Structure formats: C-alpha cells, structure tokens
C-alpha cells in the first residue's frame, strides 16, 4: 500500500471496471450504487482505519508533505481523501484512501487523482560511507 503509483493505476482500472459494469453492480448490490452508477460515499470511517492510514502515510499530507501531527498539529483531523475520486468511479477500499491537509483536499476536489509518489522512509540506515 506504500506504492502510490501502483494504487493510482489499480484504482483507475478498477474504476473503469465499475463504469463498464454498473448495471451488474446495481442489480447485485443496489444499496451501494448511486443513480449515476458510482460507488456511494462512506459516511463514517472507522477509527482504526483512520489511524492505520495516518500511520501508513506517516502523518503528513500526501500531496504537500506538511505534517499533520506533532509540533505543528493544530487539532484538526486530516481529511480522508479518495485517491481516485468516487466521481471517477473510485472505491471506498482502504487502499484508495489517503490523508490530506484541508488545503490540498480542497484544491484536489473530486476531479483529480493527484497524489505524491515521493516516499519518506520510516528510518535512515547508515553505512560506513553515510546514508544508504
């Protein structure tokens, strides 16, 4: 789930499948499909899921990389954002969710699959010549 390029590609293709098969989905699980044939938005994210995504994204906005915790934390929960928006037939699968600051989420909106492909390691390893 750390490879955002893979996740964007996977969920874009999955969204294409949802678009092509919205009649089948509407017949089998109509309570999860909108009239436009898209997946319905989740109204509540479980606390354990929010925490897991927060740690996966290392507590920073996925796009601008500003910290969403620690010394600069302003007491505002990070926005849970669909990498591939529901309007583009994205899903509510946890691998399609990222955390964003409010500014980035408001600029991304529901028409973009913007994310950052830059990854910050959990730790730096050193060898005799410096960082590996």
Q: How many beta-strand runs?
A: 4
Please bin the fraction of helical residues: 25-40%
Strand count, sense and barrel status of the largest sheet are: 2 strands, antiparallel
Give Rg in angstroms: 17 Å
Beta-strand share of residues: 5-15%
Side by side, the strands of the main sheet go 1-2
The arrangement of helices and strands along the chain is HHHEEHEE
Amino- and carboxy-terminal Cα gap: 23 Å
**Average pLDDT over all residues:** 81
The helix-and-strand class reads alpha+beta
Number of domains: 1
Supply database-style keywords:
single chain; 132 residues; alpha+beta; two-stranded antiparallel sheet; 31% helix; 9% strand
Walk me through the structure.
This protein is an alpha+beta fold. The protein has one domain. The chain has 4 helices and 4 strands; from the N terminus they run αααββαββ. Strands 1-2 form a two-stranded antiparallel ribbon. The protein is elongated, with a radius of gyration of 17 Å.
Question: Could you give a quick summary of the protein structure above?
Answer:
The protein has helices at residues 4-20, 22-28, 47-56, 102-108; strands at residues 79-82, 97-100, 126-127, 130-131. It is an alpha+beta fold and 132 residues long. The chain has one domain (4-116).
């Amino acid at each position: 789930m750390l490879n955002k390029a893979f996740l964007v590609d996977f969920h874009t293709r999955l969204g294409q499948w949802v678009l092509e098969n919205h009649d089948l989905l509407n017949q089998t699980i109509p309570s999860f499909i909108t009239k436009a044939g898209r997946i319905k938005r989740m109204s509540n994210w479980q606390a354990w899921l929010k925490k897991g995504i927060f740690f996966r994204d290392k507590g920073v906005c996925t796009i601008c990389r500003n910290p969403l915790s620690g010394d600069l934390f302003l007491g505002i929960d990070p926005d849970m954002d669909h990498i591939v928006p529901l309007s583009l037939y994205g899903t509510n699968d946890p691998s399609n969710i990222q955390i964003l600051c409010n500014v980035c989420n408001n600029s991304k909106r529901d028409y973009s699959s913007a994310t950052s492909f830059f990854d910050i390691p959990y730790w730096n390893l050193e060898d005799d010549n410096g960082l590996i």
